Amino acid sequence: MEPSRSVLTSPALQRYRQIRSQTERLAAPLSAEDCALQSMPDASPVKWHLGHTTWFFETFVLERALAGFSPYRPEFRVLFNSYYVGVGARHPRPERGMLSRPSLDEVKAYRASVDERIEVLLARHDGDAGMVELGLQHEQQHQELILTDLKHLLSRNPLYPVYSNERDKNRTDADALQWRGFPEGVRQIGHSGAGFAFDHERPRHRVFLAAFRIADRLVTNGEYLSFIHDCGYERPELWLSEGWDARVAQNWTAPLYWTQQDGRIDGKQFTLQGLRDIDAAAPVTHVSYFEADAYARWAGARLPTEAEWETAAGEPRSGNFLESGHLHPMCGAGQFFGDAWEWTSSAYGPYPGFRPAAGAIGEYNGKFMVNQYVLRGGSCATPESHIRASTRNFFPSAARWQFSGIRLAQDI
Amino acid sequence: MEPSRSVLTSPALQRYRQIRSQTERLAAPLSAEDCALQSMPDASPVKWHLGHTTWFFETFVLERALAGFSPYRPEFRVLFNSYYVGVGARHPRPERGMLSRPSLDEVKAYRASVDERIEVLLARHDGDAGMVELGLQHEQQHQELILTDLKHLLSRNPLYPVYSNERDKNRTDADALQWRGFPEGVRQIGHSGAGFAFDHERPRHRVFLAAFRIADRLVTNGEYLSFIHDCGYERPELWLSEGWDARVAQNWTAPLYWTQQDGRIDGKQFTLQGLRDIDAAAPVTHVSYFEADAYARWAGARLPTEAEWETAAGEPRSGNFLESGHLHPMCGAGQFFGDAWEWTSSAYGPYPGFRPAAGAIGEYNGKFMVNQYVLRGGSCATPESHIRASTRNFFPSAARWQFSGIRLAQDI
Amino acid sequence: MEPSRSVLTSPALQRYRQIRSQTERLAAPLSAEDCALQSMPDASPVKWHLGHTTWFFETFVLERALAGFSPYRPEFRVLFNSYYVGVGARHPRPERGMLSRPSLDEVKAYRASVDERIEVLLARHDGDAGMVELGLQHEQQHQELILTDLKHLLSRNPLYPVYSNERDKNRTDADALQWRGFPEGVRQIGHSGAGFAFDHERPRHRVFLAAFRIADRLVTNGEYLSFIHDCGYERPELWLSEGWDARVAQNWTAPLYWTQQDGRIDGKQFTLQGLRDIDAAAPVTHVSYFEADAYARWAGARLPTEAEWETAAGEPRSGNFLESGHLHPMCGAGQFFGDAWEWTSSAYGPYPGFRPAAGAIGEYNGKFMVNQYVLRGGSCATPESHIRASTRNFFPSAARWQFSGIRLAQDI
Amino acid sequence: MEPSRSVLTSPALQRYRQIRSQTERLAAPLSAEDCALQSMPDASPVKWHLGHTTWFFETFVLERALAGFSPYRPEFRVLFNSYYVGVGARHPRPERGMLSRPSLDEVKAYRASVDERIEVLLARHDGDAGMVELGLQHEQQHQELILTDLKHLLSRNPLYPVYSNERDKNRTDADALQWRGFPEGVRQIGHSGAGFAFDHERPRHRVFLAAFRIADRLVTNGEYLSFIHDCGYERPELWLSEGWDARVAQNWTAPLYWTQQDGRIDGKQFTLQGLRDIDAAAPVTHVSYFEADAYARWAGARLPTEAEWETAAGEPRSGNFLESGHLHPMCGAGQFFGDAWEWTSSAYGPYPGFRPAAGAIGEYNGKFMVNQYVLRGGSCATPESHIRASTRNFFPSAARWQFSGIRLAQDI
Q1: Which A residues in the span 39-68 are in contact with B, Cβ-Cβ below 8 Å?
Q2: Span C100-128, mean pLDDT?
Q3: Which residues in chain A have their CB less than 8 angstroms from residue C352's CB?
């Protein structure tokens, strides 16, 4: 029976199964305990991610498609609602780590039940296909968050637990940084094609850019270490005022997961493979916007705007700009491109003509468009299909638990 | 073989096994997830209690008794050290909920390994018997904390999980409160006998007491409800100044686990058996010192001092004062006496002539003798043998997550 | 002698004296007590403003111009340094209200001494004229802050003290709001002329704007009251997510200085003339970016970008857009244009090609270019010459103590 | 006329005038600015003390004595009410430093007006004499607070302002510490005489004391320096657990006003006479209960209980225990006895049989009887008549801004 089933499976159903099961593969090495803890209000337990992504399909697809719909468990409507006030009450985000119940097994059963109902819909070509696709894209965003949130949790354990034993190859020496120049002019940015894009990537629109140049690769750990050795963390004149305040208040002296012995950097960093030597040739990651900005100032450069970044990324001859894909064993097969999310100097806001969707789904992006900065590119933890020239990620300027790095730009 | 083993088992070994296994019985209904979470800095995960009580035996018994001792896992020396600076570094208390590793199973294996080594010692009548006894008394203290900390955790889950399905019998109507009088005079308090007592129960010493009377039972939920209905929570003149500040800041309007519907008390409370009707005839519990004090003032009475309490409890004819034992099904067989810890008006301090033990074990009680108040008696969660007239429990004045209640006293 | 002095006085000297004495006129109605208090970390005591503006001339003009310069009092170099790390240590901003010494009289003597030395320089056409001009512009910025910080202080006094008895005329009914449209195209913004501009107004540069329309007047108190009556403060769907969090945490239910009786808006607001009736036809002020944004969403509009604003403001036929001047008696003679600073949707950042000045003076604006939003226009408290189409003011999104209001825009 | 006035002046009137004018003498060297600022929530502006002590007479004497009483200014009833909920609303304590109005001159006029009305009462032997006396004792308590709160304020000014130029004589070497022993037995403590005492000094009652010895003088700065040099601030085993937490959180490394150069104690301390050399032979002051307790433990001793202290102080032959009076120039003529308030190990609570007065005045002391510790003796800033064997002062265990010192005791 199984073979015939796969013969009959539609591409939409295959895609649904593949993405949903990828989420479960990410959680597979983890115990119920690993999945239940919350390390800070910004991060969620893995179990919550498993439930929330399921809630998304139940709420935005099943409930709308099925006459006489009844929820799997009514209380999950509240527990797994992230921030959609249009859907009703939400369990408070900082309290997601208080939930030993439902158990991990119960959440997996919830997933299975919703999957079954979605698959029935997909099999009969029913339901809102656009919303299913949004749910899958949403699921992939949470796949990345599962890894970043888990990394943060494990980092707070003095045992430095290992999530995965697969190893990244150490890089050979990084190539010398090259600049690529772009003349001034009116450019177009934003998503235009037929494929999927989040609402905030639209509409495609014109911007005027002055001439600029942009680096062809990210800043490396080795380069960042030079900034540290040049007292980068002790010189307020290199920092934005609020950045310096954050650096002092949180006592930053290096990227987030770099470890110390006796108060000094010891050449190691915590990773999902446990404590590892820092690879000088690899891109620096887990820096805040403030650190990225200070590094750029120290280097006689600046961060690119998102329009500059997208202009550079979108050039047909940009093959050597967008790094050629390499497999990240940690994230499973098929990941490529994108070593780190790249901070831009652009505050996150709406594109001219931006219209959020009607109803609760309109809360997806629009209501976060203040006091955050855009990151472009994608990281080793980002599903491949999300690494588009038009993708806009965004985080507050002090956030460091994402795989966030630095690309330099300059005026010409 | 098993029968012969029990024949050969010494009373010390039997006692050790019985108390250690009782701890595990308390944790038996819980999942690994239940055991890993920490609901507030004051409360610890069940898993941590399981490890810490084991660490106590390893550190204070095995390490001292065994030449060439090596620890089960060196890192546990730090992870499971609660507050003994004399033993070395400690994992920070508010971070106990960050530890998904070691797993619950690993902690159970740790328990088994230490138990095995302790049992060898006990079998050959080796090791510091006094320290073993202290370790068992310590373990019993943590048995109570396992229940109170777990109750706090589960209470923060909107699903109101059930720990135990056994039910307390509802009380019949509470008897009318009777006063028992005591004339002035020099009394003796403190532990004097040959049995075990914690260091702070000693030395037995004389105190002068003015004449007083004391209630023969605890304040009931029904009586406390009258205080609430008489606007007890809205009248600052009934409260200590700092108590009123706490009541406002934390928005107290009832004992800790009483629930509300639409902003009004709904006659239910969260318990380890889930959400239950409040029994008007049962003692009120989960009130802070501030609430106990305000209630007493409202009732035209005051809290007893610990010397008054012990004087009353210790009287030979006090049979009807110390409630006759009743089984608390929740706590397993064999528990009796003590409905709730009873706040006294006595600040926790050393008895005249108090000497803490030398070394790290001297940190057991003495260093907490400031800004806490003594509670006497014992609760449904307290192991029976801890319910002595001389037992001194202590908590800060705003603490509410213990089974803490109210007994009234008056000057004559 | 005095007449001949004025004959000999250069325009630069006249201008210096006029602006410096205007600052003192603002402080004239105030007691030493009024001038010493600090109501929050964001606001400074009037006395500190008097000292700091003087420190600016001493540090950036006198010290550089005079061989063998010695400071008036060396400790003032620290006390009155605001945020220039390049100048050395600073007295912490939240501690400015701890300084009963130097007294107000001592600070006035400091002003007089520095004025005397600056006037000598100006009389002989010595010193850095550009820096003197920057010092005067800086002084004028602090004239506005003196009024806004004072207003905040007095508002925290339940006596509602009166700073000035002069009264604004009540407005007649506000005109109906008119929209003015602008077609898409490449525009130029930024300061280009020969006159003074702050560094962040430059360089003038091109931007591409989509077609938009913009309101010809500010939102009035009456209109804002309709938003309140339509439950604007109770509907999270109207707010940015972070804005809603701020609204809840700070319990906003109306603009900052609107007062309440028995928990309800009472039609009055605190002003520098004491408690006054709210004028329905006057522009609403003292709203945060979050409130401005929520109001705009409720009104089916949005905030303009700063490029849109400047485009509209700079149009030759914009006479009826930039309100015709009216005297604000409170601010003294000669003030006109600008009822309120107008929130734009633009995050504060550098213009393309922006270069801060070398040395400490480069800290003037550049290091604040993160997590703040641009306001355009100018208020009743803004010196007239600062009300330029290119002026950029900036504050964090939750700030409400400035005279900040709302102008609507829309896509076409 | 003046001579005849004094002839006619009753002793009660004379006493009233003398104490009220002493308060004004303390404020005389201060500017309006000095009197307006508040350095922390625990401390009040001098102006507020001037108003509050006046409010006390107006509220508890005039209002009750005068038919048709009308308050001087109704709003002062709220502004200058400290904590008497029975009197009505209170201006929040942390906001006392927000009041530039009423001005210092207005508060002085308030004082004069109330004085005039009280003096009329006293002249005709009207009014509640007991309440007048309480008002005067209360005023004297605030005389001490004026000095301690002012000292804290001036200490936060990097200019180290001088309040008084009079100098304490440096002590010669401190005498060797002598112990005085007391046998066990039932003692009496509490105020018994006809003179004034605060409610909490009563009733006199019996206590049983074990044998103890007590030091005949306070711990000196020199001795305390030995504790510091012996790493007293780096050894948690010397501290109460909560004390160590406070020491770490607040980074204590010496008594409150000891200054540092380059991170090291420099032998100087801030005083009301400005920065002064530390006198090794003088009693250490401005230590918290936690520091006093840690010092005592280091010294192989403990703090006395308040019953022990009063027993020792009350002995007829205690002349050499209670230091012979010496003039403290700072506090004006007539001060003697009491170098510092002396921490006892006794938590502040009611004496057996304590009854607070009826009505609002019952809030004077009773509602603070939790989480504070009793200090005995009196300081250089304490009015002489308050230095009684039965006087009970009380502060939280982390308070350091009072003139608080250390006397050692031991079990025998």
Answers
A1: 39
A2: 96
A3: 209-210, 411
